[in-house]
């Protein structure tokens, strides 16, 4: 068969012109970090504490919305540029600086390459020295509570709750716990050496470990502050 | 020569023919667009414009919004696998329920402006049309303030002058209380303008304006009073949140508007049928109901129908094969209906000793309750279109084992009874068996018994009632209770309860906030009130707190306004089979959480007011963001 070269040339020309870039670069700069208080991680509920990242200077402005992980971690994959980081009013179990009443302060971030920015916040309370142990089919927890905000903004503890779940996601929401027990804030007394215990129900299919953590519900604050998640093996 | 004269004549004709002015030739009025001056020259044309504006009235739940607009908030379970997200999600997005239709507002403003300016209409016609336009505009502002809080209040059509400067068009949000004030003052202003000769409940009337006023004032009052429990849900500019000092004023207005309807509105509670459940169900079916004040009307074979009956009819009685049974009321709701002696009690399934209770007829389990239960919910073995539903989840044997199958057509052997027996009901219950009930209940409210109403082609033309007299009575009861007059409140609430079969009236001492919350729930369920009631009482974040529910939670504290209601449950009947036992062949019931219910409703503080889109805020920087968002 006679090869028709002009067809091949036309095909090659099409292929070559198709090589032109027809798209934008994907975002590639990673901004990540944790919620911290003096270097100590602030643990919150998964997907419940939102943050907003604004990039001013592009006409219409809208935030990049994200939420913090259980350990207070966040990460955003975006482009290099100047950003402003903020958290909406009444979100999170901590105080966020306000420039005036109702005006939330922002944190300027100049993003040139991958960068870790820890977000310094002032939590109302923190759970310290949590220890989770097994006792029969129960999970026992002992911990101290540190009251961080003691000035006029101080708030009371509504309740303290010990949550247990079969997966690493542990909180009060939906199927993030299989057992929980609460202590009323008024019944707490001393904030040190608090102990709680909760019975773990039968898990189907069987597994010989659970995840546990304690959370503090602060009066008048929607989000709880937690201890880190601990794995308890039976 | 002859030829030349013919040519000249032709040329002359051509030249004179082209002498028409350019503008005459080019400016042809479009035939598809009716000019405003023409449109407002004839009352029939105005009415057709108004018809379009009525059609765009926004309802939360509506028969033409689809069955799914009724299903949320754990009052029902969605028996359609594609809609399982209602019970699998753990909350709502901040943008949920939002509305921001300023196109509608502009067209209403234009309508009001043009109808007012029209010279061809008589004063009486003009008053009626303008009043209807203002009613629709106030209704939409009311709908916006319920969902978004304070919004920019635009009462004149805005025009852009193409100067490049849009600042004059960028209006900031008004205070939440200002929008409520606008709705109330509009209702007061237009109530005298309506032509009382028009007796069409799908059009606005004096009664509709007053009913809107009563409801709006009540909402504003309760936000003022109960907003103090959620101080985070406010904005410093008052765009969200109403000062508590305004509560009494609003309650007084709500009561006055409601009483104006009660004393002189010409409406009454629907009492036509001897069976009180049938009577309650019929109030939604009877187009001449004396109870309805403002409705969305439908007409079969006339172009405006809805598929509510098609979507929700019992499976075995369906007119449309597999199209049926999507909206399944939950046991949570069913248990809320009181016993006829004014006490709360769960449906009895076990004796004090823990043994199951055996019922000869499935309906016996629901006997002696509020007549509205059987009027709202089609109970197992309930009657629809002359047939009874067949609802059971399997055979229970003496040793406690259950024989069930994946479908009524899949037979099983039941030892002692025979082989190839049908072991589940034709109308359910099987986990994941969509279009059949998965809670044990079908919906009866709005379900149309007319022949052919369940067919997709014909559809149903049952009305959707937006305002009805029973709600006005409950609004009056709530307002007078909050004003400290429990005796008047008892008088109003007992009228509604007497119609539901309660022979012992509630005493003045028995009227509490929880009673009022409860009464609204059972009377007005599936009418689009649940979300807004829970929001205005600031109870939404309490009852939908994101925690899972157990059966023990479900059956305790019934009637408590703060009772958790995060997951819909079902009540599954089983046929007991134990030859020789006197209970063999009877029914037992088990409270069951349908398998697809994995999420639990969580209402965050940021859900109280729906998000205003970033596009809107970018285009108008004067708009402040919602609290917590």
From TrEMBL, chain A:
Listed InterPro entries: DUF3823_C (IPR041186), DUF3823_N (IPR024278)
Domain DUF3823: 30-122, 125-231
Naturally occurring in which organism (per UniProt): Mucilaginibacter psychrotolerans
Pfam families assigned to the protein according to its UniProt record, in alphabetical order: DUF3823 (PF12866), DUF3823_C (PF18003)
The protein, known as: DUF3823 domain-containing protein
From TrEMBL, chain B:
Alphabetized PROSITE patterns for the sequence: PROKAR_LIPOPROTEIN (PS51257)
RagB/SusD domain span: 291-627
Classification via InterPro entries: SusD_RagB_dom (IPR012944), TPR-like_helical_dom_sf (IPR011990)
Compartments, record wording: Cell outer membrane
Keyword Cell wall biogenesis/degradation annotated: no
Keywords from the named record: Cell outer membrane, Membrane, Signal
Gene Ontology cellular-component annotations: cell outer membrane
UniProt similarity note: Belongs to the SusD family.
Name the UniProt record assigns to this protein: RagB/SusD family nutrient uptake outer membrane protein
Native species: Mucilaginibacter psychrotolerans
Classification of source organism: Bacteria, Pseudomonadati, Bacteroidota, Sphingobacteriia, Sphingobacteriales
């Amino acid at each position: 068969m006679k090869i028709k070269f002009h067809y091949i040339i036309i095909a090659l020309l099409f292929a070559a012109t198709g090589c032109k870039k027809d798209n934008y670069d994907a975002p590639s700069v990673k901004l990540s970090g944790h919620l911290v208080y003096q270097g100590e991680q602030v643990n919150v509920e998964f997907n419940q504490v939102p943050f907003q990242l604004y990039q001013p200077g592009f006409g219409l402005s809208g935030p990049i919305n994200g939420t913090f992980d259980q350990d207070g971690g966040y990460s955003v994959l975006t482009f290099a540029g100047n950003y402003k980081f903020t958290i909406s009013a009444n979100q999170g179990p901590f105080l966020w600086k306000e420039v005036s009443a109702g005006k939330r302060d922002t944190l300027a971030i100049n993003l040139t390459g991958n960068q870790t920015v820890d977000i310094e916040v002032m939590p109302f309370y923190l759970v310290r020295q949590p220890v989770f142990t097994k006792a029969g089919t129960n999970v026992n927890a002992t911990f101290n509570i540190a009251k961080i905000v003691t000035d006029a903004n101080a708030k009371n503890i509504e309740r303290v709750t010990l949550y247990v779940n079969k997966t690493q996601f542990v909180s009060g929401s939906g199927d993030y716990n299989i057992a929980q027990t609460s202590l009323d804030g008024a019944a707490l007394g001393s904030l040190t050496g608090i102990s709680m215990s909760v019975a773990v129900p039968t898990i189907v299919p069987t597994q010989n470990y659970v995840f546990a953590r304690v959370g503090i519900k602060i009066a008048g604050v929607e989000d709880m502050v937690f201890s880190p998640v601990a794995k308890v093996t039976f | 020569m002859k030829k030349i004269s013919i040519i000249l004549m032709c040329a002359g004709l051509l030249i004179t023919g082209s002498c028409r002015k350019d503008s005459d030739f080019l400016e042809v009025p479009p035939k598809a667009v009716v000019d405003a001056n023409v449109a407002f020259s004839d009352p029939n044309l105005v009415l057709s414009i108004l018809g379009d504006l009525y059609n765009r009235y926004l309802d939360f739940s509506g028969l033409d919004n689809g069955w799914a607009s009724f299903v949320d908030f754990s009052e029902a379970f969605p028996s359609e696998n594609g809609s399982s997200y209602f019970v699998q999600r753990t909350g709502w997005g901040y943008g949920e329920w939002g509305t921001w239709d300023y196109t509608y507002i502009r067209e209403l403003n234009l309508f009001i402006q043009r109808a007012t300016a029209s010279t061809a209409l008589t004063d009486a016609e003009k008053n009626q049309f303008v009043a209807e336009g203002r009613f629709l505009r106030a209704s939409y502002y009311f709908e916006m303030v319920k969902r978004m809080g304070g919004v920019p209040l635009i009462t004149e059509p805005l025009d852009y002058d193409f100067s490049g400067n849009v600042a004059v068009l960028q209006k900031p949000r008004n205070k939440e209380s200002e929008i409520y004030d606008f709705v109330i003052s509009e209702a007061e202003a237009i109530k005298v303008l309506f032509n009382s000769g028009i007796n069409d409940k799908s059009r606005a009337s004096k009664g509709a304006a007053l009913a809107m006023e009563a409801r709006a004032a009540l909402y504003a009052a309760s936000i003022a009073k109960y907003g103090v429990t959620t101080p985070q849900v406010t904005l410093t500019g008052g765009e969200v949140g109403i000062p508590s000092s305004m509560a009494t004023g609003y309650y007084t207005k709500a009561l006055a508007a409601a009483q104006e309807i009660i004393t002189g509105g010409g409406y009454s509670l629907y009492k036509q049928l001897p069976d009180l459940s049938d009577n309650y169900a019929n109030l939604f079916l009877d187009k001449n109901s004396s109870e309805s004040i403002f409705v969305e009307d439908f007409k079969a074979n006339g172009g405006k129908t809805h598929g509510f009956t098609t979507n929700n009819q019992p499976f075995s009685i369906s007119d449309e094969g597999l199209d049926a049974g999507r909206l399944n009321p939950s046991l949570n709701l069913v248990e809320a209906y009181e016993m006829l002696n004014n006490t709360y009690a769960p449906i009895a399934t076990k004796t004090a000793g823990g043994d199951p209770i055996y019922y000869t007829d499935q309906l016996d389990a629901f006997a002696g309750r509020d007549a509205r239960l059987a009027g709202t919910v089609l109970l197992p073995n309930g009657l629809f279109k002359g047939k009874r539903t067949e609802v059971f989840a399997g055979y229970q044997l003496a040793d406690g084992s259950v024989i069930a199958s994946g479908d009524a057509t899949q037979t099983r052997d039941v030892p002692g009874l025979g082989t190839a027996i049908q072991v589940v009901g034709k109308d359910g219950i099987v986990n994941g068996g969509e279009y059949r009930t998965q809670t044990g209940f079908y919906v009866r409210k709005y379900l149309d018994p007319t022949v052919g109403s369940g067919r997709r082609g014909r559809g149903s033309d049952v009305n959707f009632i937006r305002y009805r007299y029973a709600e006005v009575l409950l609004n009056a009861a709530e307002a007078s209770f909050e004003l400290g007059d429990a005796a008047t409140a008892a008088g109003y609430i007992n009228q509604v309860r007497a119609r539901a079969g309660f022979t012992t009236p509630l005493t003045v001492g028995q009227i509490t906030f929880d009673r009022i919350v409860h009464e609204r729930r059972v009377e007005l369920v599936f009418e689009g009130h649940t979300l807004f009631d829970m929001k205005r009482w600031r109870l939404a974040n309490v009852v939908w707190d994101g925690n899972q529910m157990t059966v023990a939670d479900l059956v305790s504290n019934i009637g408590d306004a703060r009772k958790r209601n995060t997951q819909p449950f079902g009540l599954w009947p089983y046929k007991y089979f134990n030859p020789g036992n006197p209970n063999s062949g009877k029914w037992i019931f088990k409270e069951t959480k349908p398998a697809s219910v994995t999420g639990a409703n969580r209402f965050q503080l940021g859900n109280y007011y729906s998000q205003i889109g970033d596009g809107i805020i970018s285009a108008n920087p004067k708009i402040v963001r919602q609290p917590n968002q």
